[in-house]
Amino acid sequence: MTNTPVIGVLALQGDVREHLIALAAADTVARPVRRPEELAEVDGLVIPGGESTTMSKLAVLFGMLGPLRERVRAGMPVYGTCAGLILLADKILDPRSGQETIGGIDMIVRRNAFGRQNESFEAAVAIEAIDGGPVEGVFIRAPWVESVGAEVSVLAEHGGHIVAVRQKNALATSFHPELTGDHRLHQYFADMVRAAL
Predict the structure, then answer these.
(1) Which listed residue (19, 178, 183, 186) is catalytic?
(2) pLDDT at position 96, please?
(3) In the chain, pLDDT over 90 holds for what percent of residues?
(4) Which of 52, 46, 50, 53 is nearest to 32 (CA)?
(5) Three-class DSSP category at 20
(6) Torsion angle, alpha carbons of 13, 152, 186, 47, to 10
(7) Is 88 exposed, middle or buried (0-12, 13-18, 19+ CB in 10 A)?
């Protein structure tokens, strides 16, 4: 069992089950995380899609915002999809009232940039770090990255907008890879977590 990372999925809202399945397929021990004591037991964390304002309020309510910021700052590997990307941004354009972020990636993001729910779409996204051709990205009220700092690697763009980034141990995508059955991004993140053990 050595070198089998324990990866949590922040289970406040969103596609928790789908991420747990994808992480298990990537040979990790995957478990939901709702409380600080559960966060303390994982080697890495996925922050799923959902509604970013609601998730930030729930993180405060569950006493998770401070511990999340501390773990991310300390270098815990973290992967945010859609709303998770927003929560990992150091800055949001036009944030909702009271919306806070965990931070960790030196980027500015725009919420719902690709349109509302009824404008959701799927697209093939070529990701620099992923072998085997493009991944299928599901964009649901998806954000995009307006700009990044010098330490951020842009891994993918779609329609001229940044949709996948990495800064050290933090990874983020505008889209939902967990909804497609293609687990290569989760495998990539699992490898990031293994490298940090």
Answers:
(1) 178
(2) 79
(3) 85
(4) 46
(5) helix
(6) -10
(7) buried
Give the pLDDT confidence score for residue 119 in this predicted structure: 84
User: Cβ contacts of residue 83 below 8 Å, gap of 6+?
Assistant: 14, 47, 48, 49, 50, 51, 52, 55, 143
Annotated active-site residue 186? The verdict is no
Q: Quick check: is 119 catalytic?
A: no
The one catalytic residue in 18, 19, 82, 158 is 82
Whether 161 is catalytic:
no
What is the average pLDDT across 171-197? 96
CA distance 98 to 189: 30
Q: How far apart are CA 174 and CA 196, in angstroms?
A: 24
Query: Exactly one of 18, 19, 158, 176 is catalytic; which is it?
Result: 176
* Predicted TM-score (pTM) of this structure: 0.96
Instruction: Give the sign of the dihedral formed by CA 24, CA 27, CA 29, CA 35.
Output: negative
